[in-house]
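Quick question, first post here. What does this chain look like in 3D?
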Amino acid sequence: MTHIASSQPHSYNQLCRVALSSLTRQSAFVTGPPRGVPWYEFENAARDLAQAGRRLLQDDTGAPGVAFLGTVARDGHPRMHPFIPAIVNQRLWAFVIHSPKQRDLDRTGMYAVHSRLGDNDESFFAAGTAMRADDDQTRSTVGASMPYTDIDERHVLYEFNIERVLWTTWSTPTSPNYQSWRCQPTS
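> Answer (accepted):
Ran it through. Tokens below.
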């Protein structure tokens, strides 16, 4: 994979179109490997962005924190759901209960994650494809890192591979600074 990083300014409308395009593309989920790369490959390619993402996806104690998961409904409309992702063994994971978001992930694999807002409205966005991880050892390892203990058969574990990232900081209340990264397949 070729990785492209950019710190060029983008217009607000361009950024919204990019973010929404990840949620509104219509495609069937391919059962092969998901597009994108695991967290550790993203981190190797864009360390500063990955450090910001890790910090913003955790709570103030360093435990996995609440973020927002965007998926695509069967009718093509975007959905947004609170959830708790965790970076465990250098991969991005989350348990998702049987719900519309779980059905969306199983159908298309497409997702977008938006972090909580950090100091001065700093934020982190990632999009890519997710796939189920059903083995007991992985479920146990990831479950031990979660801030809740009631994980049972209703909780489906997904790994989230990363295709693109956007990290936003603010110089002033009206001057955003964007840094982005995109995973591109090699030809």
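The beta strands are 2-6, 67-72, 78-83, 86-88, 91-97, 110-114, 123-132, 155-172, 175-184.
The two ends are 9 Å apart (CA to CA).
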